[in-house]
Amino acid sequence: MKFLMNTGRTVNQGASVENKRSAAYNDETGTCFMHLFDMMELGVDDRENVRVTSPFGEVVLMVVSDEHLKPGTIFVPYGPYANHIIDGETHSTGMPDFKSTEVTIEPTDEARKSVYDLMADLGGLPYDH
Amino acid sequence: MIIKDAVCPFCGCLCDDIEVTVDDGKIVAVDNACTLGNHKFLGDHRLPGPIRRDGDTWKDIRYDEAVEYAVDMLLEADRPLLYGWSGTHGEAQCVGVHMAELLRGVIDNTSSVCHGPSILAIQEVGHPGCTLGQVKNRADLLIYWGCNPIDAHPRHLSRYTRYADGFFLENAFRDRKVIVVDVRKTETTNLADEFVQIQPGADYAVLSALRAIARGKGDALPRTVGGVPREQLVRIVDLCKKAKFGAVYFGLGLTMTRGKYKNIRNAIELVDELSRHTKFTISAMRGHYNVYGSNEVNTWMTGYPFGIDFSRGIAFYNPGETTAVDILARKECDACLIVASDPGAHFPRACIKHLADIPVVQIDPYANATTAFCDVQIPVAVTGIDAEGTAYRMDGVPIRTRKVLSTGYPSDEEILGRIYARIQEVRQP
């Protein structure tokens, strides 16, 4: 199914932002909030995983229902998961399209990676001491 | 020991009424701060000392070695990028600008991915803003557009708007009206007197419709604009015109969405139109506690607020070309110094992929996502906790943050000063 991905600040993201190794940060930024009707159509339950694909990459996220969202839109808190599938194009403004990436979503049994695993995939060496 | 009136170094509210209890060299309690501030003051997991990547492992190094590595990296680079700066004090930001000029590098701060577009709009049409104190004491109508202060600036409503007393308002809570414009329902929209839910990307159209109504041209509008019924838009303009003092606060819902800086230009021009009928102001909800300061420091030193390129020997500014996301996505820089920010977590994938290919030094108290791409990371004191310095609140008021405990970590200014002094020895012998 196709969705419009919005990203933004949440209080849990802000509270855990200085500890990116924490489960709190990984869970919050690795969550895709979605309307329950869309979840029913996709056949996924709360806290199950979905693969979110954009023209710029794909990432596995945990899905959580949010009745406040309009069907057809998803919300992902700011962080490495959303940025994994957002384009670096800024249309000559310096600002990427953080709030309007079109994505395709499907259920998956694949496990969600940690923030540090995402960094390792891009050639980084996470500091985990 | 209790330290009163400490300043919270988290968001642009820069709350200056925090009480911090320090016992045995540690912060054990924080009063008056919001959840975000509490976590910042009580946070641990500091990086104990400088680290250097050695193949597939990390090794601990001394501060001298870390500083030397940074100096060598910056001197050898043809096009160094110096990025971040919003999570540190103004004195450190000054050193960064001097360093960028001497290196003929590019210096950019996090506003290029937050309110950079707002500044572009302000450069086009000006900024009819005011201090938070004016809003607290006078505003009887608030509009939050594309922002969610309950989550991002939790005390904005209690200190300055919805729940704050006002000197010129008899019963501030009853007399103030709050309108929230957003694409989704949030905790903030729940406490609005009027919630305007617009379609994603429709901000420009809705702002234009409001301007048309304010000018008496509402009849020309279709029945809905951007998903909002015309009647609701007319009601909002009516509320605005009846207000004695209106204040608009906008967030990244305007800067990051389609239209970018043109959305903010339109919002400022709406405020201009409303000011023909009553008093209206508009201001940005700034995120990092000193992102406003990074714009101030850059502007008074170079003439430009962010994205400054010194490669020509003079300050050159062209957002979209000289901004960090573009430079990284084009794989243009050949070294990167990152200070007080985390692009590894907050930049698109294409940008951080380039960080993996070039030498990177980060100056930051915590191991974060960017650490994975560093050759060297140098931990420093946290401004407002174990270092002091000047920061600018979201309304442009400078506030001196306080040092509430001593930890022995050097400040950003000290480390950057040492790096700059060594660069001067080579470039300005």
Summarize the structure.
The complex is a heterodimer of chains A (about 130) and B (about 425). By secondary structure, chain A is of the alpha/beta class.
Characterization of the model:
Chain B: One of its GO terms (molecular function) is NADH dehydrogenase activity. Chain B: It comes from Methanoculleus taiwanensis. Chain B: This is Formylmethanofuran dehydrogenase. Chain B: InterPro entries: Formylmethanofuran_DH_bsu, Prok_molybdopt-oxidoreductase. Chain B: Keywords: Oxidoreductase. Chain A: It comes from Methanoculleus taiwanensis. Chain A is of the alpha/beta class. Chain A has a single domain, classed as Barwin-like endoglucanases (Beta Barrel). In chain A, 23% of the residues lie in helices and 29% in strands. In chain A, strands 1-5-2-4-3-6 form a six-stranded mixed beta barrel. In chain A, strand 3 and strand 4 form a beta hairpin. The longest helix of chain A is centred in the first third of the chain and has 7 residues, at 23-29. The model of chain A has no long low-confidence stretch (mean pLDDT 96). Chain B is α/β, with parallel strands linked by helices. Chain B has two domains: 47-112 and 289-427, Rossmann fold (3-Layer(aba) Sandwich), CATH 3.40.50; 115-284, Dimethylsulfoxide Reductase, domain 2. Chain B is 37% helix and 21% strand. Chain B is built from 18 helices and 21 strands. Chain B has helices at 35-42, 63-76, 90-103, 116-125, 132-138, 149-152, 156-159, 172-175, 187-190, 203-214, 230-242, 252-255, 261-274, 291-302, 324-329, 343-346, 349-355, 412-427, and strands spanning 2-6, 18-23, 26-31, 51-54, 57-60, 80-84, 106-109, 141-145, 177-182, 194-197, 224-225, 228-229, 245-250, 279-284, 308-309, 316-317, 335-339, 360-363, 376-378, 389-392, 398-401. In chain B, the strands form five sheets. A nine-stranded mixed β-sheet of chain B has the order 5-4-19-18-17-6-7-15-16, covered by helices on one side. In chain B, strands 10-9-8-13-14 form a five-stranded parallel β-sheet. In chain B, helix 9 (187-190) links the parallel strand 9 and strand 10. In chain B, helix 3 crosses helix 14 (291-302). Classes of the chains: A alpha/beta (129), B alpha/beta (429). Chains A and B meet through strand 1, helix 1 and helix 5 of A and helix 1, helix 4, helix 6, helix 12 and helix 15 of B.
